[in-house]
Amino acid sequence: MKIEAEWMRGGTSKCWVFESGQFGETETSPDVLLPRLFGSPDHRQIDGVGGATSTTSKAMILSRPVGEDVDVEFTFAQVGIEEAAVDWGSNCGNCSAVVGLYAIEKGWVVPTGDVTRIVTRNTNTGQIIIQRVSTPSGALPIVPQAEMPGVPFPGYRVGLGFQDPAGKTTGKLLPTGSASDRITAGGTRWTVSMVDAGAPVVILRADDLGLDPERYDSWLAGVELQLETLEHIRRQAAVRMGLAATTSEAARAVPKVAIVASPAQSDPDSDVSVMMLSMGKPHPALAITGSIALTLAARTPGTVLNAITGDTIHPTLRLRTPAGVIETWSEERDGSLLVGVDRTARTLATTVIHLPEALGSTVDASLASATQ
């Protein structure tokens, strides 16, 4: 079996990009096919194309809708590493940045003017994302030169504007109806805010975890000592947000966890310090869908984050992350709220992925047994 794909970097993530028609040509479910392509279950993903981390074990499946006001539809897949499973429960904002670039490079969208506007829809959430790709003089630059925190090399600039992002997964910005709630885990009652915008996120205060806001560089070690407690909080939040019936059924990727605090006094360049967890581990930068949730949380009175940023609504929010400061923006446009962030993207390779076997009932059974 052979499948054509593009390997692309979007923001601080890498993903394999497939056109949806290829999956229709196989008789194998993507839930079985993708883990095998990526080499799961195996913490190294040694016999597949996965990168063995949560930020590199990702796929995007693209299609061109007919007769709609949307240029590209895309579905995001978070492929398990140690499990032969696929999480379809949310979108990836970083990988979303590849969609507009892919559309231009493949000729699906013709560049117009210095910025080409591409309307995309994420099928996981139904979210409309207006992508603005920098195309000076009506073309992609010959050499990409846009920089961003967390990536050592430049790419093409892509602005992602999430249109009216509140409640796309659960139906409400505040799924529990409250700006803050209490969750008991590890024998402690935690004050949290559960927000759904871009992606569902549960937000905690850093000082409740014993993390010093003045020593952001010490957070990683402190968080890693409390991963089990944080996972208990996350799973309980999944139930409270209506994402799972029981804690044991909570998806691995949603909700995400964000730990927040006021910026250090020595840090005038940020409005809040953030460390986000994705797939049970500290994120090396920031999940972009999570940054959208944090932006709306900052605008919502009574949330853990609003207590830090205050009620004044600013057009930008500067988030200190392990990779540097990421800035989000908000604007009203044609009666809709756009919440966005600028990323960079680049195509790394165009390739054909080979599978040594035809995926049939024998392989399906072995994959299923591996997850039990």
Description:
- It is a single chain.
- The protein is an alpha+beta fold and 372 residues long.
- It has two domains: 2-165 and 344-370, Diaminopimelate Epimerase, Chain A, domain 1, CATH 3.10.310.10; 181-330, Diaminopimelate Epimerase, Chain A, domain 1, CATH 3.10.310.10.
- Helices cover 19% and strands 34% of the residues.
- The chain contains eight helices and 17 strands.
- The protein has helices spanning 20-24, 30-38, 93-105, 219-224, 227-240, 288-298, 306-309, 361-370, and strands at 2-10, 13-19, 58-63, 72-79, 86-87, 115-122, 127-134, 156-163, 181-185, 188-197, 199-205, 256-261, 272-278, 281-282, 316-321, 324-333, 336-354.
- Strands 1-2-3-4-6-7-8-17 form an eight-stranded mixed barrel.
- A hairpin with a 2-residue loop joins strand 1 (2-10) and strand 2.
- The longest helix has 14 residues, at 227-240.
- The radius of gyration is 20 Å and the shape is globular.
- It starts with a strand and ends with a helix.
- 47% of the residues are buried.
- Residues 361-372 have low confidence and may be disordered.
Short description:
This protein is α+β, with helices and mostly antiparallel strands.
Secondary structure layout plus pairing:
Elements: E1 2-10, E2 13-19, H1 20-24, H2 30-38, E3 58-63, E4 72-79, E5 86-87, H3 93-105, E6 115-122, E7 127-134, E8 156-163, E9 181-185, E10 188-197, E11 199-205, H4 219-224, H5 227-240, E12 256-261, E13 272-278, E14 281-282, H6 288-298, H7 306-309, E15 316-321, E16 324-333, E17 336-354, H8 361-370
Parallel strand pairs: 2-3, 4-6, 11-12, 13-15
Antiparallel strand pairs: 1-2, 1-17, 3-4, 4-5, 6-7, 7-8, 8-17, 9-10, 10-11, 12-13, 13-14, 15-16, 16-17
